[in-house]
Amino acid sequence: MPQNAPRRRVAAAEPSRKKKFNFTAQAFRWVNQKLEIDEKISMGTFKKVLWLMGLTVVYIFFQHNFDSLIRKLNKADTQLNEQRAAFISHKSKYLFASKQSEVEKKLEGRGFKTNQEPPIKIAIKKQ
Q: The pTM is what?
């Protein structure tokens, strides 16, 4: 009968590690190389600085969009006020020109005269 014996461990071949592209590590090395910092800043600090720079860019982007929106709103408000003033001006001219006295003045130049006798009222008797 076979005996129970521990299995021999097969030496596993070391898996080949694929290098992942790590943006922060690459950027960290590049900044260290360009500024000659030589590891004076830790990777954690560098990540925080990158995060703050990203937030700053986002803040500037939204601030710029907000300012352009305010400019557009002010321009639209100015146009609205101009159109309102033009409407009121045209309306007042129309109301003045539609008065009976003004209509009579315009029609006299064309040969029409005002009627001196009042209109005749027609009454129908009900049965």
A: 0.49
Residues 6+ apart with CB under 8 A from 97: 103
Whether the CB-CB separation of 64 and 45 falls below 8 Å is answered with no
Range of the domain at 95: 24-102
Residue 99 structure tokens: 């008065």
pLDDT in tens, 11-30: 666 666 666 677 777 877 77
Cα separation, 30 vs 25, whole angstroms: 9
Q: Is 7 within the bounds of a domain?
A: no
Conformation bin of residue 16: beta by default, left when phi > 0, alpha when psi is -120 to 50 = beta
Query: Does 3 map to a domain?
Result: no
Can you say whether the dihedral through the CA atoms of 82, 88, 92, 95 is positive or negative?
positive
Q: Write down the pLDDT at residue 82.
A: 97
In a domain, 40, yes or no: yes
